Please model this.
Amino acid sequence: MQVGKRLVLAAVIMAVLVAAILVVRARASGSRPGGYTPKVRDHVDHSAFFRDPFQSPSDVTRACLRCHESAGRQMLRSVHWTWQGEPTAVPGHEGKVALGKKNAMNNFCITIDSNWPSCTICHAGYGWRDAQFDFHNQDNIDCLVCHERTGDYRKGRAGEPEKGVDLLASAKSVGFPKRENCGSCHFYGGGGLAVKHGDLDNSLEHATPDTDVHMGKHDMLCVDCHRTTEHRISGVDYAVQVNHDHGIGCEDCHQSVPHKDPRINTHLASVACQTCHIPTFANRVPTKMDWDWSKAGDGSRPDDVHHYLKIKGEFVYDANVVPQYAWFNLTVDRYLVGDKMDPNQVTVLNRPRGSIHDRTAKIWPFKVHTAKQPYDKVHNILLTPNTAGPGGYWSEFDWPKALATGAEISHLPFSGQYGFAMTSMYWPLSHMVMPKEKALSCADCHGEHGRLDWIALGYTGDPMTTGGRR
Amino acid sequence: MKTSWWAALLVLLGLVPGRAGASGPTSTMHPTFPPLDANGRHVTESGVPISPERTCGGCHDAEFIASHSSHDLDRTGATCATCHVEGGRLTWSADQIDEAGSYKRGVIDIRDPQPRDCARCHGVVSQDAAPLTLPADLDASLARWGTGMPYELTLATGQILAPQKMADSAVNLAGRDGLNTPFDVHAARLVTCTSCHFAPNNPGRVKVDRGGLPFLDRDPRRPSISDYIHRPDHELTATRCEQCHDAMATHDALPYKDRHMAKLECTSCHVAHTHGPVLRTVDQTVVTLQGTPHVEYRNMDAAQGGSPSARYIRSFRPFLVVDDSTQKLGPANLITEWRWVSGSPPVPVPLAKVASAFLENGTYAKAVVAALDRNADGNLSDDELRLDTDARVQVVQGRLAAQGVPDARIEGTIRVHRVHHGVQANEGVVLDCASCHSDGSRLGEEVPLSGYQVAGVSVSSSIPGAIEGDGRGGLVLRRPKHTRGLYVLGHDRVPWTDTVGFLVLLATTIGVATHGALRIRNRGVHGAHGATVKAYVYSRYERIWHWLMALSILLLLWTGIEIHWVGGVSVFGFTRSVWIHNALAVVLIVNAFLSLFYHVASNEIRQFIPPRETFLGEAIAQAKFYLNGIFVGAPHPVPKSRERKLNPLQQVTYLMLLNVLIPLQVVTGVLIWGAPRWPALSNAVGGLTIVTPVHSLGAWLLATFVVAHVYLTTTGHTPLSNIRAMVVGEDELDAPHEAASQGGQA
Model:
C-alpha cells in the first residue's frame, strides 16, 4: 500500500501544480491586454560614460558603437536607415520593387529626388545630401535622434545636427525612445506640424486620456506597440509600403473578444477596430487636407503656414475631421514614379484594396489627402520637381526648370509641357484612439444620420435592415 | 481661389467610397397626386385650404383609416400630414404643381413616421447628434396638460427618447459625467417609434402562421402589400418586451429568474431611473401668469425664467406598483391633479376659463391677489398659488361664476403614469438586490403626492395605501409594507412570528441561565458523583453526523438571519447568504437521510424510541431531576449507558425535532426555493405568504433548541464531559450500571 499511497500523493501534488499554473496563466492573460505589451523600461544611465565634448556627430555614433557593437549592423539593415523596404511585388507592376521613402511618390512634397538635404532632415543618419550617400558607413548613423532625451536635439539639412546642439548633453541623456523622439520626425512629416498623418501630432507628447487612450490614459510609448527587435521597428506606413509585412494590429494585445455586447461583436468581421474607436482625427491640432501646388509662386499673397506659402501653394486645413471609410485588406495599389496616369481623373497614389466581397477586407477609417501636383501633359506621368535642391522651385520659382531638373534626376522623360493633376492619398488611422465611452455607437453609422455611404460600400442598403455581407 | 477645393470635393463625391453623410431624407417613391380641399375640389380652383384627408384619400381609404385609428382627428388633432409628411403639414404652392395639376415629384417628402414626427406630440424625442436640450416651450406646454400634447410623455414620467449618451447631452443632470449610457437603449440601437408601434396589418410584420393543420406548417397565402397601402390599420400596436426578447435565455446572473420574471415587469429593473423632469402635482385650479397650471416637480427645481435646460434635474426612481392588467409590478409615477369641474355629470372647466377668472390684463386680478397673497407683498409667489383654505376656494368659485361657470367645484385625482421607455441595458441597469430585498425596499416606499392640499377636496388612488398628511401640509401615499400576494425575502415578514419566536428564545435563554446559575450556586452542596467507568459511547459516524448537523444548522440560522433581516449585520451579504443557505440545506438533507439509513440499518434507532411501559414514570422522574434533583446532587434517574444514551425527555425532544421541526423546515425551505419551478406546490398550501413565515417561526424554534440543547449537555458527569464525549467518543458512565450492562447483552 505504500506505493499506492505515494502514487496518490504524487498525483495530488501534480494536480495542484497544474491547477496553479493554469490559474496564474489565466490571470496573466485575457482580461488585461496590457499583459502582452512588453514594457521596455530598462534604462542605463549614460551620463557618466561621456566627459569630453564631441567634435562631430559621427564621433557620438562611434562612441555608441564602441559598446553597442551590433547596433550598427542592425541599423544598416533597418528601414529607418535605408529608406527602402524589401523587394516586394506591387500589384499592377512586373517584378519586385524595393519601395521606400527613397523612391516613393506622395502628394505632399512629392519625392525626395533632388531634394535630399531638405527631406533628409528626418533621416536617421548624417550627411545624406545627394544620391552618393554611403549607406554602408556606420559612422553616419544618427543614434541620438531616437535615443536622446534632452529634448534640445535638432537636426538640420542633410540630417546634420543644427548649430548649437550640445552633443555631449544629448549623448549623456540617451535611453529608450520616448514619444518625443519618434514624434520629432513623425509629427512633422510633410513639412510641418500635423501636415501628413492626421493622427500624429505633438498633442500626443503630453496626451490626455481623451486625446489618445493608450498614450494619454496608460502613458504607453510608441515602442510598446511598434515592437522593435534589432532596430527593426514593426509597423506599416502605407505611403511607403504596399502590404502588411512587419505590421502590427490591435489584436496583438487585445486578444480576447473585447466587447461584452454580442451585438458589437457581430461587427468585428467587417469593421476594423479603428473605425469605431477613432471617431474623428486631428482633434487637437488641425491637419492638412488639401495641397494645391498650382497656386504656388504668388509673391503678393502673405505667407501663412495654414493657408498659403509661396513655395508650396495653397492649403486647406481641418480639425475634428470625420474620416473617409473604405474596404481595406491591408494592401494597396501603388502609383510608382513613372507610371502613366489620366489627368482627367483623380490619381489615387495608394488606393486601398478590398471590397465587400473580399473576406479579408474590413471597413477602415482613412484620412484622404488631396492635392494638385505637376504632371507631364505629353507623357501623362506625374513629375518629380526639384524644390529644395540647388536651382529648385523654392529658390527660383521656375516650374519648367524645376521639373526638368527633377525629371532628369528621377530618370523620367519630360516634354516641357506640364500641368497640374489631381491626386489623392489614403492614410489609414490607428492613433488618437478614443476612450471607449467616446467610441462610435449605432446611430453614428446606421440610420438617417449615419456617416457611411452603404451603396458606395457595396451594400444594397443599410445592413441593419438588409443584413450584412455575411 | 477656392476652385481647387470645390473641384476636389466634387470629384471626391463621385469617386471616393464611403463619404460622410450620404443618405438624404427626400424619397421620390410616392406617386404624384393632386392637392384637394375638403370638398374634393382642386385647391387651385377653390382657394379653400388643402385637406389631407381628401388629398390622401384619393388613394388611401381615409374613412377606414379614420375609423381605425388610435390617433383620431377629433381627439388628437392629428392629420395624415402630422405623421407622414416632413414638417407635419401638407402645403402647396403654385410652383410645386405641374401642368397635370399634381404635385411635382419629390417636392413633398412622404414617408413612414419618424421619431421627430412622434415628438411633435409625445414628449422629448430627439435623434440629432447635437447635445440634447429641453425644449424652450416646456413650461408653456403645460397649458395643454391633459390633452397628451406635446411633452406629457416626458413630464409625466421623465422618459426622454434619444440615442445619445446622457453624458453627452446639454441637460443639467445630476452626476451627468458618470451617465455614460444612452437615454434610451432602443433609440440608440435605432429601434424607433414605428419599430414597436406599427399598423397591425402591415405584411412586413405579420408573423408566419403555422395554421395548426396537420398537413400545413406554413401558409404561403399572404396579405398583399397593396391591400395594406389601401387600408392600413392605424390602431397601432403596443409591442411588449417579450415579443422580441426572450428574457429567460439570458439573465443568468439573476437568481430565481423565473420568479422575478413572473412577478416583475422588465421595466422594473431596466428603467430603474428616468432622467427627465417629472411632475408630482398639476393644479389646474390656479393659473400662473403664463396661463399654465401650477405644477410641482419631483426632481427639478421650479421655473425661474431662463432655459429649462439649465434647471438642475436629479434622476427619478419610479415607484413600483402592481399593473392590474398583468398583475406584475412595474414602474410608474403618480401625479396628483386638481381641477375645476361644473355641471352634472361633471365636466372639466377649460383652463382658459380659469385663467380669465384669475387674470385681468395680463396680471392677477386684485381680488385674487387679496385672497391668495399671504405675505402681503402684492405678488403671488409660487407657494402662494394654492387654494388651501375654504375662503380662497370660495373666492375663485365666485369669480368663475362671474365668468359663466355657476356651480364650479374642485375635484382631485391621482393618475398613474406607467413607464415603458428610457430603457437601459448592460451598464445602465442597476443590479442591486437590496433595492427590493431590504427593509427600505422600493415596494413599500411612500409616495409623496403633493406639497399642499386643496381645501375641501379628497383625493383617492387605485394604488393600495393610505393617503395622509405628511406633516408639512402636503399629502403622501403610505403604502402597506407588504404587497398582496408577494413575499419578498428580506423585506416582508409576519411580525407576530418574529415576536413569538423571539419571546420563546428569550424565555428559554433566561430559563437556562437561571438553571445554570442555581447549579453553580449549589456546586459544593452535593457530594461526590460516585465511581465511573470509561466507555466508548459515540461511534465515529455518530459524531460526524452530529457535528455536521450542528454546523449546518448554525450556519443555516446565521444565513437565514441575513436573508430575513437585510440591513442588520451583514457578513455574507444577501445574495451570498441565499446561495450558502441553499447549499447547506442540501448538506443537511443528505446528512439526515444518510443518518436515517444508518440508524435504521444498525438498529441504533431504538435509542430514540422510548419504552412504552416505563416511559411516563421515567419522564416524570427525569423532569423532577432537572427541576430539583440536579441542584442537590441526586443521581440521574435514567442513567446513561451504551444501550441507552438518551433519557425519555431527550427521546421525546429529538423525536419531535427530527421528525417534525426539521422536516417542516426542509419542506417549507424546498417550497420557498422551488417556488419558481413548481409554483403550484407552494400555492397549494397558501403561497409563499404562508410558507415563509412558517419557515421563519421554525427557525426561531430551532434557535431555541440550540440554546437549550447546548445548556443541557452540561448536565453530565462534569459540565464538559458530554461535549467531550461527543468529540472523542469516550464518556464516563456511572460504574454499577456499566457493570450491569456488561453482564447483559452487548
